[in-house]
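User: Predict structure, ligand pyridoxal-5'-phosphate.
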Amino acid sequence: MPKANETVLEINLTALQQNYNYLKSKLQPNTKFLAVVKAFAYGNDAEAIAKHLETLGADYFAVAYTSEGIALRKAGIKTPILVLHPQAVNFKTLLEYRLEPSLYSLKILEEFIALTSAENMQNYPIHLKFNTGLNRLGFTDEAINAIAKILENNDAVVVKSAFSHLVASEDLNEKVFTQNQIKKFTSISHNVIDALGYKPIFHLCNTSGILNYPEAHFDMVRSGIGLYGFGNSAKENQNFTPIGTLKTVISQIHTIKKGASVGYNRAHIAATDMKTATLPIGHADGIGRQYGKGKGFVVINNQKAPIVGNVCMDMIMVDVTNITCNEGDEAIIFDQTHTAEALAEGAKTISYEIITAISQRVKRRYLK
Ligand SMILES: *Cc1c(COP(=O)(O)O)cnc(C)c1O
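Assistant: Predicted complex:
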């Protein structure tokens, strides 16, 4: 791998392919695979990731917002795209780009039908989201008859899929709760078929659901974090390869005398003479202030260098007192060995948060 001479996020498309193949190996041959590429494919780069997954045969993509789906269409993605959280204000552009909305309340369903009917659409694909316990978005099971009534004698839309989302699929202490969600969704699936008179695609599992609840794959699964290399448990992490390596370079080295302070607000006071390295990456690049004051670290010449004091907007200072290093040397923020998940744990957060936070000003580079 080329050495970094500025801050760069390297994206390993071979690792992406390995993760995809591993997840696929957990499925029945006819179970469909929806790749979740919201939030710039979890901070990686939605266009490059989606293009690669399209060549690998992913059946569906999902994004959170309409604008994310438009970007994929503009990049030439032809695969169906589910918009998980569309807003009615964007319905017209959603139709223009053949994006498929997740509809979660009678109000938003009626609004969408009013528009598609006015535009003389026929069988426009929609997806019904059911709430089975997350209490975030979704119809209750009691809404099924009302939904069927709205859809009766209406050919502007067709229900392509019905789905729900697991609350704690990675947490085996919540197995009973999850099994109850699975039961609820199974019952919803029967009621939906009865009410509509046809069978849409049913889907429930995210990455940890795929791994922990093989009995609940239904017709399709939705994976995000697994594609990007995290299995949400020490055991499963071994079967995945993180696709992103975030690295940067030492801009300057300072010798700090005992009693002197480092960084804004004098958050660090040197207890002894020390040496720090300044790196061109800060909270505007996605390394939040919670990683400051020793909670986060980088790796320089194979040794851990803790972040000293407060994270600045464009820089961090790290402790290199016991590390032989020079200006221009590479610093690893995370890679396949020093994972984003391990870094996140130090600041009491999760891999999802740190990788989606890597901002758009960080240069992306692709490895095949
Ligand atoms: C983000 C999201 C997913 C992906 O979850 P992972 O844990 O990353 O696999 C799946 N389904 C829905 C509804 C989501 O919002």
